[in-house]
Amino acid sequence: MSKIIDENYSKIVEKLSSLKHVLITSH
Asked: Residues 1-27: pLDDT tens digits?
């Protein structure tokens, strides 16, 4: 069960970091 959560967490982190990158580059 924790493995699934861990995978989802890494996906969320990836999205967040890419979002942050887009925000930084757009400014």
From this structure: 689 999 999 999 999 999 999 988 877
The pTM is what? 0.56
Query: DSSP string spanning the chain?
Result: -HHHHHHHHHHHHHHHHHHHHHHHHH-
Residue 13 corresponds to which tokens in the numbers above?
């982190």
Encoded amino acid at 13, one letter: V
